Fold:
Amino acid sequence: MAFLEEDRLLPYDPGARAVARRLYSGIRNLPIVSPHGHADPRWFAEDQPFPNPTQLLVTPDHYISRMLYSQGVPLEDLYFGDARKVWRIFASQYYLFRATPTRLWLDFAFHNLFGLDKRLAPETADEYYYAITESLKQPEFHPRALFERFRIEVLATTDSPLDSLSHHVTIRESGFTGRIIPTFRPDPVVDPDSANFKENIARLGQITGADTSGWQGYLSALRQRRSEFVALGCTATDHGHPSAATADLDRDSAARLYSKILSDSGTPEDRELFRAQMLTEMATMSLDDKLVMQIHPGSFRNHNASVFRRFGPDVGADIPVPTNYVQALKPLLNRFGNESGLTIILFTLDESTYSRELAPLAGHYPCLRLGPAWWFHDSPEGMMRFREHTTETAGFYNTVGFNDDSRSFISIPARHDVARRVDCSFLARLVVEHRLDEDEAMEVAVELAGGLARKAYRL
Structure:
C-alpha cells in the first residue's frame, strides 16, 4: 500500500468517486486563501530557517501536545526537552494519531514536502529527523520560499491591538510580494477576564495617545488602532469571546458599565455584559471601516488550571461548551442584522447549533455568514457534518469556504487539501443523486476552495 493514497477521503462508491476525482482535479492546485490563522508574522519578516523538525512540527501544534499529554507525556518533556529527544518521543507515540486529522496533515507534509515515504515510527524517527533537518537548511525551505511553494495567495495573521505590527511593516518594506495581512483581535482590551486587563487598557492609551480612562477615549483608541491595522492591509476583526452574547446599551449606560469594569467592582454578569456590548461597538465601527467581523465563541479556555499556571495558554487545554446564538445575537441583529454592508462570520464549537440556529440565522440575515467547521471539528467527519447540516438551509453561498486556523505553518496546504477533498466528496454525492449537475458542482467547488473566502473577507 502506498504511504499516501491518491484517493484518500474520496467516496467509496465507484460512481461518486469518479465524479469526486474530476472535481478535485479541477481545484487541487488552486491558490490557497487563508483568511484566518495564527501564523507568526516574524517568520516572514526575518525569513530565517526553521530551527529543527521539533520546533517546526511538534511544539507549535496544540493538537499534538494535547494528545501526547492525554497519554501521560509530561509537557515539560515537550516544551523544555532536547529537540531530538522530543522528536523521538513524538515518533514513539505517533500511533496515537491514527484516524485523526493531525495524522492526515502530518503525513501530507512528510510525503509532499520532505519526500518521506515510510511511516513515522520509533525505528524511523532518526531518519525523519535527519532528512527534515537537512531540508530546512536549504533556501527553498525558508518561510518566504515555502509561502510561494504552497501557492498562498493571501495569509491573515491574528494580532493584538497592543502589537506594534512591526513585523508586518518589515514584510511590506522588504519588497516581498507575498500578501500577508494582520487581523485585529481585540480580546486583551475588550474582555475584562483577560490577563492584565487594566494594564492593557492603559497600554492602549499610551500607544494611541487617547485617554482610555473614559468611555469615549477608550472607543477612540480602538478606532485609531483599527485604522492602523487597515493601513497594513487588515480586512477583518476576530473575537474569541466565551459566549455569543451581545447587548445594545445606550451611551450613558455603556459609560457607567465601563467605569465599573475599570474600578474592579464589576460582577461576572457585568463582565459578560461588557463583552456583549463590545461586540455591538465593534459592529458599529465595522460599518465605518468595513472590517469583517469574526465571532469565535464557545471555548472554555485554559480548562486545566494547573497546566495554565505552568505553561500558559494554547497548549491544548481548551474545551468546547454549549453555545446559544438565537437569543444571544438578538440585540446585535436588531440593530444591524439587515445591513448588507456589514459582514459578521459566525463560528461554533457546538455542532448541535448548525441546523437549529446558525444555518437558519445565516439563511435569513443579510449581515451573517457561516464560518467553516472549526477547531475540534476541522476533521473530515466534522467538515462533512457541517455541509450536511447547513447546506439545506443556508446553501453554499451563505458560508465562507474554508480557513485553516493553523498555528503550524507547515500544515496549511495539508488542511486545505483535506477540505477540498471532503467538499468534492460531498458535491459528488449530490451529482450522483441527481441533485446537482456536474458543471454546477465544479462551480461550487471552485467557490469553496477560495472564491467565497475572497468575497466574505473582502480580499
About this structure: The longest helix spans residues 268-289. The CA atoms of residues 299 and 320 lie 5 Å apart. Residues 14-51+141-456 form a domain with the TIM Barrel fold (CATH 3.20.20.140).
